[in-house]
Write a sequence for this structure.
């Protein structure tokens, strides 16, 4: 096939024209092999410019197009569309960046011109080796996988479920509700938890668009936004693997608590009547607060910030629930003495200050202390601490409640790997952007909500669940078409020897292994064309469309000649 | 030394009438009891001028087997791989090989080129192996010299890389035969895995004896060798360091790629450096020649060597097969060993020591290599 | 006799042959007659010799065009040079007759192109084995080599197949340097210009132009000597190639490195059949073979590979001997291939590389051929 390459250099207003001698560039390339025409134009991305290109292609019967202009990030798509409209395959096109990578960064005009010539020549040489590539289209899957059936997951599921969108809600325990089911009341309004959660769980059960899997864990999530293949494993059944497809994933796995055994100075696990917050919540929910000997405690110490130094962050809600504990105690055991030992108090938001003041009115002590230690003297527990005035004091109590830091759950790393997202500070799932992208992640279509993303209270959790739902509702529209990557990898059947190196490095799980032929095979729908397999394959059996060895080699050789 | 020895106990076996026959005796017994269906072990070729791996099913052939052959014509890992690359098969096979061959087999298993399900890997303490060309000059004489060297555990006549091998008693397989540190006319059998334990069990061999004397002797020898290795490779590094010296080191290379073919780790069906990717047009070649005035043709000899280093050094077991095969006597094994030591060190990796240990190059560890990241800050 | 040419135009330079060739190459480069020259060159300070592509004439100072060493078969190099397309610029190559023949065989198989290439060859006294390059003894044996060339004698130290090579004059070269049996090569160099291309190339060169021919009498005698050597070589391996036991003996120590295949100029396949999945044994095959034989060498197929390669390339084997030089276990592979190669070629009266227009017999159907086999 005779190649007719059209080369067009954009003046880009003054951007390129003033820094590069465009006529010189045109001169240098117009007589190269295969170049049918070399012209300049004021602004190729303008409506007129695009029309000009289209006309030129048709007029000269061009087979390939090279444009020297701005960054591909800016207008590669634009000119590819021009190609399509003019009847040539959009991949028989190469954009040489002589703006960002040349005109804008080179002082000397001669140098800039020389560079622009090299870049343009390199693009021309490369484009000779381009092959036509065809686009693919698949319909996006509007369904959603929600991992975690606590407040966050339940809220997201209810927001998302509809007749044209199924929700798969996977919970690793045997019932829904999560941590909140252990709490009698919630702060700061001290209303019963059942107000929040009971109805929601009922709504889930009655919603025919939500499929719930309990005692189940997610094993595999492969694919991309609009097209994920999911595998879950049910822990209690024979044929225990279930597979289904979704378009988005919401991670709502909640949190765990710091283990106070790691800070032995607090006596947890050593002495009786030293409880963690969760243990105390459960005790309180059972109706009776008592010591090991069955009697009601007369004095209780609540120690804040357990594990804060070790974790390196404030868990935001412990001070508030510690206040809640004080209220529980005062309600159930009139006359009980409650002392809080804290280093800093965290009382954010519009209602919490009021709650704090009300609680302190009930004869609850707040002692700012450092070097807090729980020791046993005889059969009595004593809190030793250093007060604000540096004096060393001790405070005998019957019961100690520890408020430990919030941690990510133990399966966070595994799930991060499965969904190809990262973990950030504290090991929580990493959001895409701290301020501007708090519920999305680096992987399109994977969202994080609730304490899985970082310590937060219930209202903040609800906000995030609704936000994630909103994002999914607006982008994962049923019937919308998605175009998987065109520039995918291919693995030669004759040369692949089945070492699976490509499989080890593929970030998208797009390569599977054919056990019969003992070779690796690329799933072209899932492949994102990152090129990792191509780079890793020792024998070069894996190649990347549009970035073949030869295409890259020819471009580089010409550029550095 | 293996850090995965399951057992701190071994068993002392009588080496009567001699070690070789005692080992063969055990293998024969194992075949009798159908613990193994076949044994992969070196045997002499009919002409008597080399030794090759033979998969033996007919027990009567075992009497001619040579567990510790004087030459390594084919790296054992190649042999195991050719038998099981496409599947484990139905035969239970015992493979009797040197530690470096076992290690290479383990590396190949990680690379999907060997299936170890039905293979029991049996290693022996290795005194080294003769360079092939020395052996060929007088096979009979070489064999008696080798036997002598084994008796004295003297490595002077062995391959250069054998002389600096500090892993010659490394246990990376299932069962190990330890001749070092054993009392006269005995040797140790040591198990390194559940498979090893089960096999010895079926042979009514109980691991009841202390192997302290073997461990002590092995430690002494490896430490000595390690010192020698460090020194030799350090000297080599200064000899061939820098692009000019490197080019000189490979100036005689004729690009026959023998080193790559015999290397157990080089498993690619079509080597990158034999593929289309290194075939250019006459215009390319002329342009390159013009830019320098003259280029060696075919060019890219050093690219092949350094490229091969890049691809396989993390799994290199310093067996020396490459150097034996080089027609131009380039000290390839020593050069590659030097690089392999450094690259494996970078990842705290020892090739072939543990089947479960993932290959560093394809394993992402978030906390790794920060010193490289920060180097440019 | 096959090397008889009509009186051709020739070029005489009054310097020793090494210097003369260098002068020729210098002329070609400096006058722009060619853009590059392929020839042997010293490429390191300790005198390692390798083929090089030279474009600047001052690089010729290290060139050693007639060095008696063949580290690579130049036919393979020329094939690689023109594999992706004919040479875009004129290039000269100084190669030995067998290397040229190998290249012609490759051109017949679309693995290269003769376009734009000017071939300078010579009557060839053979080469030293690579082992001598390893031992660094080539330099000190150079005068011995040239003495033997002058006297038309055959040195014992040469590559085995060189000793028995009867194809020591090139068929299709543009120029032939007259070397064998010429005892004045220390003082002068005669280069026969066999083709019009060759003549054009040296127009304008400061040298004596004359009409010359090869000395057929002397070359006939030399050929007889070579024939005697060949018979000796063949008889040495005769018994070993008679039957399977003999083959097992001679190939027993083969380690399957396939070095012979890789350096062979005729072996051009991207992926050799014997390295492809077709040659891999599957577990059931191992099991059935073991049941049959009781013991199986692993990896298998040692002799299968050798016989297979023989059947693939023997029709074009030019007996350059590189295979044996590269064999790590010193199997006399080049002699075996020469013997079988010549037998096969004889059946078809075919001399590989003699004529680029002559088709390869194995893929040519000639109705009247081999009727004796039919009957």
């Amino acid at each position: 096939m005779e190649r007719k390459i059209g080369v067009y250099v954009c003046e880009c207003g003054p951007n390129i024209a003033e820094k590069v001698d465009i006529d010189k560039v045109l001169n240098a390339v117009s007589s190269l092999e295969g170049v049918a025409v070399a012209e300049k134009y004021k602004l190729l991305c303008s409506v007129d410019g695009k029309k000009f290109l289209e006309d030129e292609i048709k007029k000269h019967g061009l087979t390939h197009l090279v444009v020297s202009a701005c960054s591909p990030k800016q207008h590669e798509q634009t000119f590819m569309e021009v190609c399509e409209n003019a009847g040539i395959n959009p991949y028989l096109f190469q954009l040489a960046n002589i703006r960002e990578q040349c005109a804008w960064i080179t002082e000397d005009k001669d140098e800039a011109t020389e560079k622009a010539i090299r870049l343009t020549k390199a693009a021309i040489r490369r484009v000779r080796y381009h092959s036509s590539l065809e686009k693919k289209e698949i319909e996006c899957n509007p369904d959603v996988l929600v991992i975690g059936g606590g407040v966050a997951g339940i809220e997201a599921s209810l927001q998302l479920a509809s007749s044209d969108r199924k929700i798969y809600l996977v919970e690793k325990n045997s019932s829904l509700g999560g941590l909140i089911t252990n709490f009698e009341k919630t702060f700061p309004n001290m209303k019963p938890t059942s107000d929040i959660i009971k109805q929601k769980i009922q709504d889930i059960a009655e919603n025919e668009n939500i499929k719930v899997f309990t005692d189940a864990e997610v094993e595999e999530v492969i694919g991309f936004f609009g097209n994920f293949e999911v595998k879950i494993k049910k822990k209690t059944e024979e044929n225990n693997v279930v597979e289904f497809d979704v378009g988005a994933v919401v991670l709502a796995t909640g949190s765990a608590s710091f283990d106070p055994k790691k800070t032995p100075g607090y006596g947890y696990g050593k002495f009786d009547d030293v409880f963690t917050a969760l243990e105390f919540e459960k005790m309180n929910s059972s109706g009776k607060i008592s010591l090991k000997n069955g009697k009601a405690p007369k004095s209780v110490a609540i120690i804040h910030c357990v594990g804060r130094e070790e974790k390196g962050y404030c868990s935001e809600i412990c001070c508030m629930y510690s206040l809640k504990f004080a209220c529980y105690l005062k309600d159930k055991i009139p006359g009980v003495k409650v002392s809080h030992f804290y280093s800093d108090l965290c009382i954010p938001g519009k209602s919490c200050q009021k709650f704090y003041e009300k609680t302190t009115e009930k004869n609850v002590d707040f002692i700012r202390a450092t070097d807090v230690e729980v020791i046993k003297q005889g059969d009595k527990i004593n809190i030793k601490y250093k007060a604000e005035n540096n004096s060393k004091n001790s405070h005998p109590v019957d019961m100690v409640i520890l408020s430990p830091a919030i941690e990510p759950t133990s399966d966070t790393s595994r799930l991060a790997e499965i969904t190809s997202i990262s973990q950030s500070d504290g090991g929580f799932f990493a959001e895409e952007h701290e301020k501007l992208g708090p519920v999305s992640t680096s992987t399109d279509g994977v969202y994080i909500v609730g304490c899985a993303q970082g310590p937060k209270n219930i209202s903040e959790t609800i906000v995030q669940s609704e936000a994630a739902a909103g994002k999914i509702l607006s982008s994962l529209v049923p019937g919308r078409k998605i175009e998987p990557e065109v520039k995918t990898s291919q693995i030669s059947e004759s040369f692949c020897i089945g070492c699976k190196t490509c499989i080890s490095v593929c970030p998208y799980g797009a390569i599977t292994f054919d056990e019969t032929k003992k070779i690796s095979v690329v799933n072209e729908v899932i492949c994102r064309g990152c090129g990792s397999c191509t780079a890793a394959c020792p024998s070069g059996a894996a190649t990347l469309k549009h970035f073949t060895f030869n295409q890259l080699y020819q471009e580089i050789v010409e550029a550095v000649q | 030394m293996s850090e995965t020895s399951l057992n701190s106990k071994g068993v002392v076996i009588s080496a009567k009438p001699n070690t070789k026959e005692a080992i063969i005796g055990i293998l024969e017994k194992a075949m009798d009891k159908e613990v193994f269906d076949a044994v992969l072990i070196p045997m002499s070729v009919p002409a008597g001028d080399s030794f090759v791996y033979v998969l033996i099913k007919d027990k009567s052939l075992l009497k001619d087997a040579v567990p510790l052959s004087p030459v390594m014509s084919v790296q054992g890992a190649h042999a195991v791989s050719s038998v099981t690359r496409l599947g484990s098969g139905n035969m239970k096979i015992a493979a009797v090989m040197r530690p470096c061959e076992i290690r290479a087999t383990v590396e190949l298993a990680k690379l999907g080129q060997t299936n170890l399900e039905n293979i029991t890997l049996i290693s022996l303490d290795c005194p080294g192996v003769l360079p092939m060309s020395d052996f060929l000059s007088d096979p009979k004489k070489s064999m008696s010299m080798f036997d002598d060297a084994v008796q004295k555990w003297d490595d002077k006549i062995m391959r250069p890389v054998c002389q600096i091998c500090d892993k010659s008693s490394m246990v990376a397989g299932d069962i190990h035969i330890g001749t070092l540190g054993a009392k006269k006319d005995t040797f140790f059998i040591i198990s390194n895995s559940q498979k090893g334990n089960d096999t010895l069990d079926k042979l009514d061999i109980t691991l009841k004896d202390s192997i302290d004397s073997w461990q002590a002797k092995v430690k002494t020898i490896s430490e000595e060798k390690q010192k020698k290795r460090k020194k030799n490779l350090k000297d080599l590094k200064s000899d061939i360091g820098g692009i000019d010296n490197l080019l000189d080191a490979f100036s005689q290379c004729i690009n026959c790629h023998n080193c790559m073919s015999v290397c157990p780790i080089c498993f690619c069906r079509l080597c990158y450096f034999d593929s289309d990717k290194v075939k250019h047009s006459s215009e390319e070649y002329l342009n390159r020649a013009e830019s320098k005035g003259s280029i060696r043709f075919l060019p890219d000899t050093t690219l092949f060597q350094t490229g091969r280093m890049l691809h396989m050094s993390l799994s290199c077991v310093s067996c020396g097969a490459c150097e034996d095969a080089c027609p131009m006597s380039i000290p390839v094994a020593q050069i590659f060993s030097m690089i392999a030591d450094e690259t494996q060190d970078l990842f705290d990796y020892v090739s072939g020591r543990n089947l479960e240990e993932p290959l560093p190059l394809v394993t992402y560890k978030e906390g790794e290599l920060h010193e490289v990241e920060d180097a440019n800050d | 006799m096959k090397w008889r040419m009509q009186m051709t135009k020739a070029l005489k330079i009054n310097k020793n042959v090494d210097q003369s060739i260098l002068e020729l190459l210098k002329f070609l480069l400096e006058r722009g007659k060619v853009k590059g020259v392929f020839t042997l060159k010293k490429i390191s300070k300790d005198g390692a010799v390798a083929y090089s592509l030279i474009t600047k004439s001052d690089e010729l100072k290290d060139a050693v065009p007639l060095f008696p060493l063949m580290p690579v078969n130049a036919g393979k190099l020329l094939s690689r040079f023109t594999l992706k397309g004919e040479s875009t610029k004129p290039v000269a190559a100084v190669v030995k007759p067998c290397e040229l023949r190998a290249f012609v065989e490759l051109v017949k198989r679309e693995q290269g192109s003769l376009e734009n290439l000017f071939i300078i060859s010579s009557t060839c006294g053979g080469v030293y084995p690579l082992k001598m390059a390893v031992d660094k003894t080539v330099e000190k044996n150079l005068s011995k080599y040239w003495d033997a060339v002058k006297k038309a004698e055959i040195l014992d130290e040469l590559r085995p197949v060189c000793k028995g090579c009867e194809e020591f004059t090139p068929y299709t070269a543009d120029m032939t340097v007259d070397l064998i049996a010429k005892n004045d090569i220390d003082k002068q160099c005669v280069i026969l210009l066999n083709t019009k291309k060759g003549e054009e190339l040296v127009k304008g060169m400061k040298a004596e132009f004359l009409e010359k021919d090869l000395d057929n009498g002397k070359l006939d005698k030399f050929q007889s000597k070579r024939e005697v050597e060949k018979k000796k070589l063949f008889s040495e391996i005769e018994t070993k190639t008679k039957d399977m036991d003999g083959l097992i003996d001679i190939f027993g120590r083969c380690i399957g490195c396939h070095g012979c295949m890789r350096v062979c100029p005729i072996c051009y396949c991207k992926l050799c059949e014997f390295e492809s999945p077709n040659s891999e044994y599957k577990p059931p095959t191992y099991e059935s073979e073991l049941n049959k034989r009781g013991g199986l060498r692993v990896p298998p197929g040692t002799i299968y590979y050798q016989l297979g390669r023989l059947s693939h390339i023997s029709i074009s084997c030019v007996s350059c001997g590189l295979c044996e030089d590269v064999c790590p276990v010193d199997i006399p592979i080049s002699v075996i291939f020469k013997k079988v190669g010549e037998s096969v070629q004889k059946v078809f009266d075919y001399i590989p590389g003699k004529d680029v227009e002559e088709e390869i017999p194995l893929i040519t159907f000639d109705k009247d051929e081999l009727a004796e086999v039919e009957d």
About this structure: The longest strand of chain A covers residues 364-377. Chain A has 17 helices and 29 strands. The two ends of chain A are 27 Å apart (CA to CA).
